[in-house]
Each structure stands twice: as C-alpha cells, then as structure tokens.
Amino acid sequence: MNLLFVYNANSGKLNAAFDMAHKAISPSTYKCSLCALTHNPLKEKKEWVDFQKASKHCMEFLHKDEFEKKFSQKFEYPVVLKMSGKLSPVISKAQLGKYQVLREMMADLEQLPD
User: Alpha-carbon distance 3 to 82, whole Å?
Assistant: First the structure.
C-alpha cells in the first residue's frame, strides 16, 4: 500500500527552525502529533527510520502546504492517507493524537494490508 504522511506544519527552513524550537521548549503544545511521534527535536528518530526501511508499504512525506499545492485537497492535519486512486485517511488526526509512543503507530501501520 502506498501511504502519504502529511505533517501539520509548513515547509521551509524558517518553519523548521520554529517547529524545532517549539518541540524543545513546549512539546505539550506542539500542534503536530505525527512529528512529535516520529522526530526528536533535531531529526527523525532512528526507530522510525529503521521502520520505514523495513516496511512493506511505500511511504511519502509532505508538509501541509506541499500537500495542498500538489493535490488541491485539505484534510485535518496531521493525517496518514492511503494513496490508491482517491486519497483516504488510514490514520486520522484524532488517532494520531491518541498514540503515546511511536511503537503504537508502527503497530497499526504493520496491520494495514499490502
């Protein structure tokens, strides 16, 4: 299955610097639960990088501004979408917000069909 992960953040170096600082200073108020799960303040978590390499799914990652420009659609962000004809959520913003640790999201992703 092709999966598209859309972060609730905009692209660009300035936005990345702001997001990095926000995650470090006040992680509980950071608006992107997907980013909070998959990244530490400086980079992607090794556990997440290893999972991507071993996954049976093809994964693409976009910031919300990149996604909206490319697909001319909007969703509640962050979101994980299935890309097969029509884009449809497989993990919603609400579900992403419920995960306490990255392993929970990875377990759900492993359960998705090929």
Answer: 5
The SS3 call for residue 85 is coil
In the chain, where does DSSP find H-type helix? 13-25, 33-38, 46-54, 64-71, 93-98, 102-111
- Put simply, whether the predicted model's pTM sits higher than 0.85 gets the answer yes
Q: How far apart are CA 28 and CA 90, in angstroms?
A: 24
Q: Give the C-alpha separation, 58 to 110, whole Å.
A: 12
Pairing relation of β-strands 58-63 and 86-91?
unpaired
Domain boundaries, the chain: 2-111
pLDDT at 85 over 90: no
- pLDDT bin (cut points 50, 70, 90) of residue 20 is low
The tokens describing 20, both together, are 């990095």
Place of tokens 């609400």: 94
Tokens of 49: 């990088």
User: Which region holds residue 59: left if phi is over 0, alpha if psi is between -120 and 50, else beta?
Assistant: beta
